[in-house]
Amino acid sequence: MNYGELKTYLRNLINRTDITDPLVVQFITQSKVRIERRLRLSTMSHLVDFKLDGTTGNWKLPPDYLELIDLYTDGGELERVDTSKYLRTLGSVGIPQVFVQTGAAIRMRPIPSADTSIYLNYYRSLPDLVLDEDQNLWSSAAVDCLIYGAAEVAGDYYEDERLQRYAAKFEATLAELENQQTLEDFSGPMRVQPAYSYPSEDNY
Fold first, then answer.
1. pLDDT digits over 95-129, tens only?
2. In 10 A of CB 61, how many CB atoms?
3. Which InterPro entries match (predicted)?
4. DSSP structural state of residue 56
5. Percent of the chain surpassing pLDDT 90
6. Where is 102: in which H helix or E strand?
7. Pairing between strand 105-109 and 118-124?
8. How far is the C-alpha of 100 from the C-alpha of 57, rounded, in Å?
């Protein structure tokens, strides 16, 4: 389902004359943020590799970063440590062994040489929906979760009597996606399927 269809569907589900276009966008955006705060699916993982200039082990996390999976070089995985252990580690050039994170900043020691490839594997926020034809994982494989999350936000905004029903459906779809991820973790790759493809006001 593309963004335009999502907005139309939410508007019809809420079925209020005072739900404006900016509010529809706000509710869907808030739902996406809530989903990405709760879920850690394999389809959200992203691997990037890069090199530094050989004079520093400091760099910034990508703007779509949500949570670290692992950080490594060809010499092995780096260990996240506290500041005390970081400061006790040699700050000369070598194979990075440890790192600390402060906000969006990563500092590694020893300092990697200019030809050292650094690999960052992390969970990322999916691209925002902007144009009506845009789609992402949530709009294509988790429509029900995205819609009911948005409906719950709308229900709270309007103090709607359907709020608890929307909240329960949102939690149920989150649980199904989490369960699919658990099955994948134990049995190998599987494609994320929507729990309900098209939520309906009558389907409860």
1. 999 999 999 999 999 999 999 999 999 999 999 99
2. 15
3. SU10_adaptor
4. -
5. 88
6. strand 98-102
7. unpaired
8. 11
pLDDT of residue 120: 98
What SS3 class is residue 90? Answer: coil
Q: Do 145 and 33 contact (CB within 8 A), yes or no?
A: no
Continuous segment of H or E residues that includes residue 3? helix 3-14
Could you give the C-alpha distances from 141 to 32, 109, 132, in angstroms and in order?
13, 41, 17
Helix 21-38 with 143-158: angle, nearest 10 deg: 120
Tokens coding 151: 């409906």
Domain boundaries, the chain: 3-42+126-187, 52-116
Residue 13, pLDDT above cutoff 50: yes
Any bridge partners for residue 121, and if so which?
A: 47, 70
Q: Which two tokens stand for residue 118?
A: 């650094």
pLDDT at 70 exceeding the cut of 70: yes
